[in-house]
Design goal:
It is a single chain. This protein is α/β, with parallel strands linked by helices. The protein has two domains: 230 residues, 3-Layer(aba) Sandwich (Aspartate Aminotransferase, domain 2), CATH 3.40.640.10; 102 residues, Aspartate Aminotransferase, domain 1. It has twelve helices and 13 strands. Helix 2 crosses helix 9 and helix 3 packs parallel to helix 4. The structure holds 4'-deoxy-4'-aminopyridoxal-5'-phosphate.
Length: 381
């Protein structure tokens, strides 16, 4: 195999992609350094038994670091699944809908729609009712979170309410605290936090179950982290295959079968970095500063860029914006590439532009992007 030079700070590409997103260099470097010999064992992490002491320490450290950085209450546990956040779209209704039950889904983007789709498929198989949906969709667009009137469709008798914090494609963010305040009291709250997990201090105690695909702020794709209230996990159906059951995963500490060991290992590295950087308060401070730089730059260009999302719901993680026409889209992306900025085109379903500013995106990248935005508008406007 041809050798390639190690990435240096001079050659690094600024990844503004929305997932897989940028990962902290310190976490990648640590993996590189001990790739062939993890913890002095003379073996790669990829070769270790998931039942052996080396992996066990890594697995437990990752779980403990999640507890620490999230400041989890004793009621909640950390679980690992594989199959991405989409797997949770399916396993949530499988585990918690029984005959006659009905779930509520609050939707402000495509990921919420996909969760509804799985619940709609599963509900009749379980003898449950079709989900009730509160959506903020206007035409084909999502520009805000669901309103109180839309959420009025929910009642206290729902089996659970499923929501999303950050809609990655549309760049619409709904903070966990606002979600917890907006849904009927007493109904178990389930939330897809994939694209803003670990980006700010968040009280997860009101949530029965939250989950996040790892490939934004956590680690490699495929792994999904779930934070579950243990009492809620135990309420799951017991007539399902063991691999899908929350109670079994809880009891087996996410070692029902061979876990994605490398993904958990790299996640551990990311969490070590995050903790050393000052934890979630430090991430929030940086993320706020980065988002302000980029949104301010977009708005300082006399309307050259469109920023469609309602101000109060603008995502700090995925900044969605548009240029005046498709030709300029192409030119913008090509020029960005010459500046080593990639991942800026919007999701194929909506077009336009999108910049992800996940935890591992340094402030300097946001500064470089802001400068490019202003410069490009001057030349092309
Ligand atoms: N939910 C959200 C909010 C996402 O952004 C994504 C992926 N971009 C998913 C779910 C699906 O994740 P996965 O591809 O890991 O199944």
């Amino acid at each position: 195999m041809a050798s390639s030079p190690a990435r240096s700070d001079d050659t690094v590409t600024m990844n503004f992609g929305s997932g897989p997103g940028a990962l902290p260099r310190a976490a990648l470097l640590a993996a590189q350094e001990e790739f062939l010999d993890v913890e002095g064992s003379g073996m790669s992490i990829l070769e270790h038994s998931h039942r052996g002491s080396v992996y066990d320490r890594i697995h437990e450290e990752a779980r403990a670091l999640f507890r620490k950085v999230l400041d989890l209450p004793a009621s909640h546990e950390v679980l690992f699944f594989q199959g991405g956040a989409s797997e949770q779209f399916a396993t949530v209704p499988m585990n918690f809908l029984r005959p006659g039950d009905r779930a509520g889904y609050a939707v402000h983007g495509v990921w919420g729609e996909k969760a509804v789709q799985e619940a709609t498929t599963w509900a009749p198989l379980a003898g449950a009712e079709a989900p009730v949906v509160a959506s903020s969709q206007e035409g084909t667009r999502y520009l805000r979170v669901p309103s109180a009137a839309e959420l009025g469709a929910f009642s206290g008798s729902l089996r659970y309410v499923h929501t999303t914090t950050n809609e990655t494609i549309h760049g619409v963010q709904w903070h966990a605290e606002a979600i917890a305040a907006a849904v009927p009291a007493g109904v178990p709250l389930v939330c897809d936090m994939s694209s803003d997990f670990l980006s700010r201090p968040t009280d997860l105690s009101p949530f029965a179950l939250t989950y996040a695909g790892a490939q934004k702020n956590v680690g490699p794709s495929g792994l999904v982290v779930a934070i579950v209230n243990a009492d809620f996990a135990k309420e799951c159906r017991k007539d399902l295959p063991r691999i899908f059951r929350y109670d079994v995963n809880l009891k087996e500490k996410s070692l029902v079968n061979t876990p994605p060991v490398f993904s958990v290992y790299l996640t551990r590295n990311v969490l070590r970095w995050l903790d050393a950087e000052g934890g979630l308060p430090a991430m929030a401070e940086r993320n706020t500063a980065k988002a302000k730089l980029v949104y301010d730059a977009l708005e300082s260009c006399g309307g050259f860029y469109t920023v469609p999302v309602e101000r109060a719901a603008r995502s700090q993680m995925n900044v969605v914006f548009g240029l005046p026409n498709a030709q300029l889209d192409m030119r913008f992306l090509a020029e960005a590439k010459t500046r080593r900025m990639v991942g800026l085109s919007g999701h194929r379903s909506v077009g336009g532009m999108r910049a992800a500013l996940y935890n591992a995106v340094p402030l300097a990248w946001a500064e470089a992007l802001a400068e490019f935005l202003v410069d490009f508008a001057k030349r092309a406007g």
